[in-house]
């Protein structure tokens, strides 16, 4: 893979935000020419494929400003500094759904948009949910509503583009091939 490697000459920091950092790297290409790469740096995230005792999938509906619409997604959230992915997964599950679990199985991890971002999402599975005694407050600027749906209904909502993100599409494919 070294034959495709690009060497960074210079990095210009553009923005350092709460969720992302933006930078423009000047690079030397494998053929010796130079180019610019606009990059998003992200701390990473988790997503949780959670099944209830009734074998329903737990979703949250949330407005996504970048899309200018609400979509249904599996519970997910950003890694905090120094926090292990499984800790983030349990925290996000609790905050967004009112459920907790003592059993999280790492399914996979993937890069969301490797052409311009380094965000790595860890996907966990659990079918051992316990309802919390009291709801845990989530982020003050986050408004979500929980849904529990069977796989067939979720697939229909994907066709309607009410479910329209990669991590949730992956979750449905995972469950379908798993036989849930």
Description:
This protein is an alpha+beta fold and 180 residues long. It has two domains: 40 residues, no CATH class; 134 residues, Nucleoside Triphosphate Pyrophosphohydrolase. Helix content is 19%, strand content 41%. The chain contains three helices and twelve strands, in the order E-E-E-E-E-E-E-H-E-E-E-E-E-H-H. A four-stranded mixed β-sheet has the order 7-4-10-9. A three-stranded antiparallel β-sheet has the order 1-2-3, with no helix packed on it. It has a three-stranded antiparallel β-sheet with strand order 6-5-12. Helix 2 packs antiparallel against helix 3. The relative contact order is 0.19.
Task: Please state roughly what percent of the residues sit in beta strands, choosing from under 5%, 5-15%, 15-25%, 25-35%, 35-45% or over 45%.
Answer: 35-45%
Structural class: alpha+beta
CATH arch. level architecture of the largest domain: Alpha-Beta Complex
Major sheet attributes: 4 strands, mixed
The overall pLDDT average reads: 95
CATH topology of the largest domain: Nucleoside Triphosphate Pyrophosphohydrolase
- Which stretches of 5+ consecutive residues score pLDDT under 50? none
What is the number of domains? Answer: 2
Query: What helical percentage do the residues reach?
Result: 10-25%
Distance between the termini: 38 Å
**The level-1 CATH class of the largest domain:** Alpha Beta
Number of helices: 3
Q: Output the helix-strand order.
A: EEEEEEEHEEEEEHH
Q: Provide the CATH superfamily of the largest domain.
A: Nucleoside Triphosphate Pyrophosphohydrolase
CA radius of gyration is 19 Å
> Quick one: how many beta strands?
12
């Amino acid at each position: 893979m070294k034959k495709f490697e690009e060497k960074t000459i210079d990095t210009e920091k553009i923005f350092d935000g709460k969720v992302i950092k933006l930078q423009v790297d000047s690079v030397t290409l494998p053929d010796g020419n130079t180019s610019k790469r606009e990059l998003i740096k992200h701390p990473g995230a988790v997503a949780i494929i959670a099944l209830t005792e009734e074998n329903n999938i737990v979703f949250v509906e949330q407005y996504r400003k970048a899309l200018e619409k609400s979509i249904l997604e599996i519970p997910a959230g950003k890694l905090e500094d120094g926090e292990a992915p499984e800790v983030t997964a349990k925290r996000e599950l609790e905050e967004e759904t009112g459920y907790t679990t003592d059993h999280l199985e790492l399914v996979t991890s993937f890069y969301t948009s490797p052409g311009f971002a380094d965000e790595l999402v860890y996907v966990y599975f659990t079918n051992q949910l316990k309802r919390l005694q009291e709801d845990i407050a989530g982020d003050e600027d986050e408004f979500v509503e929980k849904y529990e749906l069977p796989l067939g209904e979720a697939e229909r909502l994907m066709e309607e583009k009410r479910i329209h993100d990669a991590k949730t599409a992956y979750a449905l494919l995972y469950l379908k091939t798993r036989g849930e």
